[in-house]
Write a structure and sequence with these properties.
Pfam family, one: 4HBT_2
Helix content: 25-40%
InterPro entries: HotDog_dom_sf (IPR029069), THEM6_lcsJ_thioesterase (IPR051490)
CATH topology: Thiol Ester Dehydrase, Chain A
Distance between the termini: 36 Å
Radius of gyration: 17 Å
Order of helices and strands: HEHHEEEEEHH
Protein name: Acyl-CoA thioesterase FadM
Length: 177
């Protein structure tokens, strides 16, 4: 089940937090609760992505994106992701999450997020996100105009991921014979 109460708590905790610049990093703190674990008593990989949602929602709140999007009838959706898991997060571990917008290209917004236990990064995700309206995808040119901002150049590793994703076949597999 989606952690609606946790989401409401995060929004409430950060509702009066200082506004962030478009490319600043939002930092939040979380606990790995029993409902987050798998059979190995560590943070479930699917729940990890759900917790990253909580960081993005508040990031968008703190940079003012939620208000801009709501006023225009826009929404957001994840259009792709790549995640690395490097260290275990066990039940009751406290983690720090860092969320930031890395930039965008003509079609998509790229969000970089990571989880930390102390000085150790446990996981990192790159998300490709689309801004949507009832008419379909909103161009990033429209988003730039709404925010009066330009994207910084995307880091080489993000550009390489975009290029690799463009090579992936779609649909991914033929139907079995």
């Amino acid at each position: 089940m989606y952690p609606v109460i946790r989401m409401a708590k995060e929004i409430a905790i950060h509702r009066n937090a200082p506004r962030l610049g478009l490319f600043d990093t939002h930092v939040s703190h979380h606990v790995c609760w029993p409902q987050d674990i798998d059979l190995w008593v560590e943070l479930n990989n699917g729940r990890t992505l759900t917790l990253y949602d909580l960081g993005r929602i508040v990031l968008f709140q703190r940079i003012g994106a939620r208000e801009v999007m709501r006023a225009r009838g826009w929404g957001g959706t994840v259009a792709g992701s790549s995640i690395r898991y490097r260290r275990r997060v066990r039940m009751f571990d406290r983690i720090e999450m860092r969320s930031r917008i890395a930039g965008w290209d003509a079609r998509f917004l790229y969000v970089d997020q990571s989880m930390w236990k102390g000085e150790t990064c446990t996981s990192q995700v790159l998300l490709r996100s689309a801004i949507t309206s009832r008419a379909g995808l909103v161009t990033m040119a429209e988003v730039e105009a709404a925010f009066d901002a330009k994207s910084p150049p995307l880091p080489a590793w993000i550009a390489a991921w975009i290029a690799a994703e463009a090579e992936r076949p779609w649909p991914p597999m033929p139907a079995p014979a």
